[in-house]
Write a structure and sequence with these properties.
Blueprint (H helix, E strand, L loop, with lengths): L2 H21 L14 E4 L4 E4 L1 H19 L2
Antiparallel strand pairs: 1-2
Length: 71
């Protein structure tokens, strides 16, 4: 793939992400609230490990990449 196409695609993804975060933040309310996401909090620290959320994001990105780059 040509570098120009990669840059245009990357720019489009960044723009789309920015628009979603600005105008449709409710689309991402599920992130970090699924069963399997670990939250450990005490008076001095907070640890957050979004295992299930990251598995879903990885699955969706894998499907999207395979659809676009399949030969």
């Amino acid at each position: 793939m040509e570098p120009s196409k990669i840059l245009v695609t990357l720019g489009s993804v960044i723009l789309l992400t920015g628009l979603v975060l600005t105008y449709l933040p409710w689309l991402l309310n599920w992130f970090g609230k699924l069963p399997g996401d670990i939250k450990i909090q005490n008076e001095h620290s907070f640890i957050f490990i979004p295992i299930t959320s990251m598995l879903i994001v990885s699955l969706v990105l894998t499907v999207i990449v395979n659809l676009f780059f399949r030969k």
